[in-house]
Amino acid sequence: MDLRDELPVDHRLAQVYRIGAGLCGAVLLVFGCLGLADGLSFFSTSGEQVAGLSSNGLLSLISVVFAVVLIAGAVIGGNTASTVNIAVGVLFVLSGFVNLALLDSDANLLAFRIPNVIFSFVMGFVIATFGMYGRVSSKLPHDNPYWRTRHAGTEHAAAAQAAAGPGVPRLGGRTS
């Protein structure tokens, strides 16, 4: 399924994706900049406290990179922001699992502690939820562009489009 043309540019879901990416990106940017400003050791496995979490220079840099990715997704908006949110959210959750396994070992290059793991899980689920909002559900409304795509060519889609009226954008942003 090609997602680039499914959501009209001015669809209300685009705002949810943008706000989610922007807010989460801003939080990560602040955390990363605080760590970089403190001049933390880049590869310290013990880490220093930054905003209640353990951090080192590498984790601060990675936080800034992911913040830039999320903010870029927010600026672009639409399906790009949604897809970026989902991908980054999944990466955060996976990072939580990997770093949970690496706690108290020499391989803990990001200086994670239990609060970092919990933050990674929570932030990952929040970011992914913003990306999936209105896109992933079995009960999407019939005027939702994702519902229409999944039911294209069926009598349900034709009935939903007829009920929506002539001014509602069709797939690809075209209006009837």
Structure, explained:
There is one protein chain. The protein has helices at 13-37, 57-76, 78-102, 114-132, 145-150, 155-164, and strands spanning 48-50, 53-55. The chain is elongated and about 60 Å long. Residues 171-176 have low confidence and may be disordered. It has 176 residues and is mainly α. The protein starts with 12 loop residues before the first helix and ends in a 12-residue tail after the last helix. Strand 1 and strand 2 form a beta hairpin. It has a two-stranded antiparallel sheet.
Give the N-terminus to C-terminus distance in angstroms: 23 Å
Shape: elongated
Largest sheet: number of strands, sense, barrel closure: 2 strands, antiparallel
Gyration radius, in Å = 20 Å
Estimate the helix proportion, in percent: 55-70%
**Could you name the ranges where pLDDT drops below 50 across 5 or more consecutive residues?**
171-176
Secondary-structure element order, N to C:
HEEHHHHH
